[in-house]
Write a structure and sequence with these properties.
Helices cover about 40% and strands about 20% of the residues. The protein is built from 5 helices and 6 strands. Strands 1, 2, 3, 4, 5 and 6 form a 6-stranded parallel beta sheet that branches. It binds flavin mononucleotide. Flavin mononucleotide binds next to helix 1 and strand 4. One of its GO terms (molecular function) is flavin adenine dinucleotide binding.
């Protein structure tokens, strides 16, 4: 059975809610699912899941949420090779923050690719100004992702 690790970066719980809404779709498609509320590098690479799905919101001015900094610091400082890592990414933000819109998700996407990871499918960006209930965008995206890639 393929497995998906869902790595959550959240301040107020919205990204965790998205992860919990999406998990049953992956389970129905035959994946084993584990949600990581306190992601670490070990949980990403040891063992590496068949798919790493990041549900990541932005705080501050383009910053990573605090629960995610153990992983983001490890990636930025240790620069591990992520060759072979397949990942998908849902970035949550608010366009009222203008040039830091979805800044953490965009930065993470670039970092994962730089370290050798391969993004599968397009990054979803959820704008809280347009889509207050993030599930309204995330669930259709997940259904389309599964139809195209599993
Ligand atoms: C203090 C604060 C700072 C924020 N900074 C940004 C930002 O720089 N860029 C952005 O796109 N969204 C920003 N947001 C919006 C959040 O990313 C957005 O509301 C998201 O849906 C929150 O998800 P969460 O419930 O998982 O924390 C900020 C929100 C707050 C409250």
């Amino acid at each position: 059975m393929p497995d998906v690790g869902i790595y959550v970066a959240t301040v107020y719980g919205g990204a965790l809610d998205v992860a919990e809404q999406i998990a049953p779709l992956f389970e129905a498609a035959g994946y084993g699912v584990e949600i990581h509320e306190t992601p670490t590098l070990e949980k990403l690479v040891d063992p590496q899941p068949n798919l790493a799905l990041f549900c990541i919101s932005t705080t501050g001015r383009g910053d990573y949420p605090g629960n995610f900094t153990a992983l983001s610091n490890a990636l930025e400082q240790q620069r591990p090779s992520l060759e072979g890592l397949r990942y998908a990414l849902i970035a949550m933000g608010d366009s009222s923050y203008e040039d830091s819109f979805c800044g953490a998700g965009r930065r993470l996407d670039e970092l994962l690719t730089t370290l050798g990871g391969s993004r599968v499918g397009e990054r979803l960006e959820v704008d809280a100004s347009e889509t207050p209930m993030a599930d309204d965008a995330a669930l259709p995206w997940a259904e389309q992702w599964l139809a195209a890639h599993s």
